[in-house]
Design brief:
- The chain is mainly α and about 120 residues long.
- Helix content is about 80%, strand content about 0%.
- The protein starts with a helix and ends with a helix.
Amino acid sequence: MNFNEKLIELRKSKGLSQDELGNALGVSRQTISKWELAQSYPDFQRLVLLSDFGLSLDALVKDIDVQDVRNKNLSEKQLSSIYEDVSSAKSTINKVINILCVIGLVGLVLAILAGIFWG
């Protein structure tokens, strides 16, 4: 039985929803869903917390394909890096837009003042 199947079985045997299990482990429902769909794996801390639900660490991780874990962790790191880059770019763009707005307002005020005093 794969890790994701063990997790689903454990969660259902305890009568927990993905949201309830996520809350107990300090992760989101979406994270539990990813684990159950074998799209990612929990970190060691979460595995230890999962073992508190009555399934030993050995039983939880037995038969896990280590290379698959490495590949998925690498993919997660790459996605995280992309999201950080996009977030940084958005922040920079927002700063530039704010500066341009301030410059535009200063220019407008100067134009109004010039019109009042020299018009």
